[in-house]
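queue> pop job 88
queue> type: inverse folding (structure -> sequence)
queue> payload:
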């Protein structure tokens, strides 16, 4: 079985490629960087160097493959984040149809059931719809929850202010996931011959924000660490002062508010999956190691 993995050697794509190679599949990894060739080959995978925005390149890469894992590489510099998602989704759709590939697994997000009000995830909703319109394919949308490693972005704030803060927090619930658990779920879906799911949610843990802060705080020696809810404008100005482009900052704020109001997890609540293999306490050890590096 020949499988194409997009996302280069990222947090999900690398363990996914490793898992698929271990299962005995022939794996091609797409990367925009030629310097990744040796690392990809070290995984016993084949490198395909080019851009996911290039329909011709993607069509040639998908040709003769049995399955593909598609994801949207993040790019905060794009002037319109939602249009950026749509453009890549359209490229994938054209390449899938032209190449004749039949099994597609797309990395979407929880909250992608909503057409608006979720920041970046609106792009996942739109990409799902673009791929849904491709005829004759077996398609699964993987909808992971909040990535654990996004919590690393709070480290400078914790060191400076001794608290975590965003437009959501306190008692707000946050479902979280390890990239490794996502990779395992994607590998399972690609390998599935029967009972192919249209949508699969993936999560590793689910806690209130203050409980998350407590677990992380205990790991770094700040047992009283809290996660405070901050005013929207304060967070926006902080993001933009740190160099985040305005459009990306606005999408992050909207996404955070969707967490706060719980609309992000409405469909997830109706279709809760079993937890993956990596609970918050395991990630907290990684968090602490990185926290204490500087």
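queue> result:
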């Amino acid at each position: 079985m020949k499988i194409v993995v997009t996302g280069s050697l990222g947090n999900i794509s690398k363990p996914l490629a490793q898992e698929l190679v271990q299962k005995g599949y022939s794996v091609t990894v797409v990367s925009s960087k030629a310097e990744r060739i040796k690392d990809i080959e070290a995984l016993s995978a084949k490198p395909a160097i080019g851009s996911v925005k290039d329909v011709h390149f993607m069509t040639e890469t998908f040709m003769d493959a049995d399955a593909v894992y598609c994801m949207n590489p993040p790019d905060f510099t794009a002037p319109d984040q939602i249009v950026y998602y749509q453009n890549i989704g359209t490229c994938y759709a054209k390449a899938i149809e032209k190449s004749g590939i039949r099994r597609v697994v797309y990395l979407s997000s929880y909250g992608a059931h909503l057409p608006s009000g979720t920041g970046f995830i609106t792009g996942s909703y739109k990409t799902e719809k673009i791929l849904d319109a491709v005829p004759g394919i077996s398609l699964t949308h993987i909808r992971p929850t909040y990535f654990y490693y996004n919590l690393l972005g709070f480290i400078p704030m914790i060191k400076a202010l001794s608290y975590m803060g965003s437009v959501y927090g306190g008692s707000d619930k946050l479902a979280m996931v390890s990239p490794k658990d996502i990779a395992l779920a994607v590998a399972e879906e690609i390998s599935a011959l029967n009972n192919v799911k249209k949508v699969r949610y993936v999560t590793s843990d689910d806690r209130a924000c203050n409980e998350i802060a407590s677990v992380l705080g205990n790991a770094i020696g700040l047992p009283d660490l809290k996660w405070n809810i901050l005013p929207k404008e304060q967070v926006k100005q902080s993001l933009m002062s740190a160099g985040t482009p305005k459009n990306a900052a606005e999408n992050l704020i909207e996404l955070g508010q969707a967490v706060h109001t719980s609309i992000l997890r409405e469909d997830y609540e109706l279709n809760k999956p079993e937890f993956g293999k990596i609970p918050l306490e395991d990630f907290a050890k990684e968090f602490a190691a990185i926290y204490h590096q500087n």
